[in-house]
Write a structure and sequence with these properties.
Blueprint lengths: L14 E7 L2 E10 L3 E9 L8 H13 L3 E7 L3 H9 L3 E2 L8 E6 L6
Parallel strand pairs: 3-4
Antiparallel strand pairs: 1-2, 2-3, 4-6, 5-6
The protein binds coenzyme A (COA).
The site of coenzyme A (COA) has 18 residues, from strand 3, helix 1 and helix 2.
Amino acid sequence: MKKEPKILRPQINGTFQPFSVDGIRIGYFTVIEEVDCTELLILKVFKRFRDKGYGSKIIQEVVNQFHKKTISLYVRRENKIAIHLYFKHGFWFDNTYKDENKYKMVYNQNIIK
Ligand SMILES: CC(C)(COP(=O)(O)OP(=O)(O)OC[C@H]1O[C@@H](n2cnc3c(N)ncnc32)[C@H](O)[C@@H]1OP(=O)(O)O)[C@@H](O)C(=O)NCCC(=O)NCCS
């Protein structure tokens, strides 16, 4: 039996969202929705489509869909591209989170910047 590609498998407890442009699968993201917050768990643009603005588009889509609650995520400290993009779209570091490998970033429309 043919195995389903990993990316098509829905995440447990999460909302799996493929991201396509003109019918072509570009990447995907996964969020976990809680009562008062949303966590962006996975964000991925397939390699051949990177650096064309699709990552930005996906983050904007997540913000548009979930901005009424605080959106949080964890990103590895060396992931400069992702951090740049999250900043660009209004995410800030949660400085109360301490981990030597990861940052926690949050988007909250009520934060006065
Ligand atoms: C992070 C990721 C989603 C970005 O997707 P993408 O489609 O390439 O993103 P975009 O094309 O919208 O934007 C790339 C941005 O990074 C910038 N960039 C490129 N190389 C960079 C670098 N070395 N350092 C900092 N920024 C960089 C580009 O200039 C661009 O910014 P701009 O829009 O201000 O010009 C993609 O690289 C990916 O799927 N990575 C693997 C999974 C991952 O790391 N996910 C995030 C986990 S939290």
